[in-house]
Amino acid sequence: MKLEFRVAGEMHEALATVTPKHKAYLEGKTTVEKLKAMRLDAMAAAWSEQQGKPDIAGLSFDERLGMLVDAEWLHRET
Is the pTM of the predicted complex or chain greater than 0.90? Predict the structure, then answer.
């Protein structure tokens, strides 16, 4: 499976081995469910909170990702 992602404005590609069973599992899950499955509960809660705030859409990807990572970091530090 080829994954594409952006880092610092540049597109990158990576290859990942995904079994058919794992692919079917991932396709049936929402982002929040996937975050919780990875035990990123604070990030999942922050993601859900962001979805309910229309002003968040004006932020860049890096800003939003930073907010999610900060939420998880703070949760684990306390």
Answer: no
